[in-house]
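Handout, section B. The chain below has 498 residues.
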Amino acid sequence: MITGSIRKQVDKLWTTFWNNGISNPLTVIEQISYLLFLKRLDDLHTARKKRANRLDEPIKDPIFGEDEQHLRWRNFRHRDPEEMFEIVSQEAFPFIKELHGDPGADGASSYANHMQDAVFLIPNANLLSSAVEQIDELPIQDRDTKGDLYEYMLSKLNTAGQNGQFRTPRHIIEMMVEMVEPDPDDVVCDPACGTGGFLIGVGEYLRDEHPEMLRDDDQRRYFEHEMFTGYDFDSTMLRIGSMNMMLHGIEHATIERRDSLASGGVNDRAEEDEYTLVLANPPFKGSLDEERVDPALLKVVDTKKTELLFVAQILRSLQPGGRAAMIVPDGVLFGSSNAHTELREHLVENHRLRGVVSMPSGVFKPYAGVSTGVLIFTKTGSGGTEDVWFYDMEADGFSLDDKREEIDANDIPDILDRWDAWTGDGDKESQRPRTAKSFAVPKAEIADNDYDLSINRYKEAEYETAEHEDPTAILGDLKTMEADIQRDMNELETMLSG
């Protein structure tokens, strides 16, 4: 997370765009993204050139050709504003649009296809010059800082929350990723990827926990080209998500336009039993028209409610043995309709529900105060649920108001420790009392409660026994106090009369 001076620099950059008439947060992020991407391309070209010089061989896969050197960040950043504007708007921007192939052509990357509708909207040379100067001063040489900066910009999407879309905080993403423990062979999907946060979270986890995969040519190619798939139906989000992935070093992910719940149109790609790992915070926007819903999902749960359909969709897309962690509104956990109950029964009886984390309502502020939970499950098709682990998260390291300021109280480290214990031998967690922050509930008890997955159904309150003083002693104390008051009043009266 960026703080202090870098945050102020980003805020200043944002204000510069705002003062020049670009006030839509998505537009600001898009335009800044194009500039960040140009800078990153220059850094990559420089790194490849240094490596070639060390090995005394020609540069491998140069980004800029001999006649394109003027498009490099280092070569246009000090130009006269008007000249810089001409280069960037007329040459450098078209260059990045076609970087990974001609849009729509065979072999073109997802990035190229999403960029075909991109428009350079920086209106004048002075704004461009100021933006380039400010970006050049940002200390974003390493991938982590660049990613943090991008995440901070994304947090400014105050349009989020419309249509049920909430940006998932990065620390919640990291918690969920750690709980499912991605491995180098996973096939990963987010069916409502937005800006790509979950896919990037998996990528960062693998870089830290399995760095050897990036030293193997075949595994690295798989990581960069085949491992990650994301769907969204918003073209702007697809562009931002694609650039976000590339800024985090995943340049050829499959990011496609798709309404994951609908059939026909852009949804002609079959994906049953396709992925080994799904992470998601789908948009929950109420109900869909029944004719739009994929019939395969209605076979799992007969409903038009998106929050239930997404659970069914994720189950359908997973391979047997595949695992998922997804955020759901609380209603999914305890809703009493037939569809709610049947879906929970399907999840518990036909697959393996491993855990439920109840999150406080402030996690998604300032966008919304909705209460949510995290479901962690494995697709089996043959059952496997025994005991279900519950955790009552009360704090996530940030205040639960609109400001979301960093605080000391944070249950996430404890959640991860207890989850590791639960997925290990499980004995310690199984023996915890129902008054604890985490505990396990047998499947039979869940079934007896209409498959209710709300932690409040099973949690027991802990009451302290109050010790009361003997009533006669209290009366004695009151009499003593009254006598003292009377004596003081008599003394006061004597003083006044004298």
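Note. Residues 159-165 have pLDDT under 50 and may be disordered. Compare this with the example in section A.
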